[in-house]
Amino acid sequence: MPSLDKFIIRGGNRLSGSVTISGAKNASLALMPATLLAGGSCRLENTPRLRDISTMSTLLETMGVVIRHPGTTLELDTANITSFEAPYQMVKKMRASFYVLGPLLGRYGQARVSYPGGCAWGPRPVDLHLKALEALGAEIEIEAGYVVARAPRLEGCDFTFDVSSVGATGNTLMAAVLAKGTTVLRNAAVEPEITQLAHFLVRMGARIEGIGTHVLTIEGVDDLHPADDTNIPDRIEAGTFLAAAAIAGGSVTLERVDPDHLSTVLARFRDAGCSVDTETDRIHIHSDGCLQPVSVTTDIYPGFPTDMQAQWMAMMTVAPGRSIVTDTVYHDRFNHVPELQRLGARIEVNGNSAVIHGSDRLTGATVMSTDLRASASLIIAGLIADGTTEVLRVYHIDRGYEAIELKLRNLGADIQRVDSEDY
Ligand code: UD1
Question: Is 119 tagged catalytic?
């Protein structure tokens, strides 16, 4: 049974001060399995201490990887890999477990990885991962709920992803670096987490051209060596704190961020009436708490991230006027809507769009987290809601935010984590 902690938030406090942004969860979840590609010790600096990272560590440990995580340094020793399997128990907890498929296949020529099921916000297929690996010469069968993949040695190919996919690009890239010959991946994802993965693979001895563009050209090598790297900052955690400051009002500085990863998001915060200034690795936001309605449409990077959509919607519920949030990446990602409605938000969902009629107030209530970013949106709404908001099932938030309540409290928010009997 997951932790039954809940958050109790008393809304109305303005935020001020600075907050240090942790390393990017989604980059770490790709870098960690990439270490399977070489036998030996790798150090990944700026790895956040999160539940998803522990889940990936546990999975890699079942394969024989020896892992230590002092502070924010993750040390992985991949010298003795004894299993090539990602069991259902792991994959059902976290879809990113599927990332072990590419590196296992690339290095060991075999993998047995549970086929991911549905997810909280609808279907999330893996067809592109499988098609791309088949194009590299893997034989893939689905047996008893598992993807069973084999290939004596993968061979380079020219493959176009029908849809730009972070996970499929990462998985295929990790397989292709050890394939024989040249692989060209077209319509590859350009999210910073994939760029970070590609740079890490290069540190391990991979030969990749076009990093950060939609066409990756990989010259396969015979083997890779262990390497160290420092993770990029988490752009979604950063965006979440910007949303918290925008809605609560106040002046907040985000430390250890990369403003370049957030250019579209920062532009929308300015449109909403916030003042935003950037330095090399800092973002300052000032908000008087009076937000303008601003519509957003999610898109692949550098567009507005789907992972920021729920938090933006929470902000828009108190921006007087009408705004629309459209998700073109995940059409059904609206689990947060009924919970925001419990706080008094006026939102209608039509297809993959939500129309928000912003008012000047929300009212505290008990709400339930349904997934990671939905939970973040409820906390953000709770910061401004009149009275007390209780957010149940915060284990979702612990997957992807490091001590969010401590970071918010340091900025002046009234938020407590308590044990709860409610589930
Ligand atoms: C990653 C992120 C997730 C984020 C998402 C989109 C990680 C661990 N997770 O998820 O937080 O919300 O990117 O930025 O990095 N698709 C297919 N077939 C496939 C794979 C994907 O049709 O085989 C579609 C998906 O349904 C979706 C789109 O491609 O519509 C993008 O999904 P994708 O980029 O693959 O998301 P994930 O890698 O799962």
Answer: yes
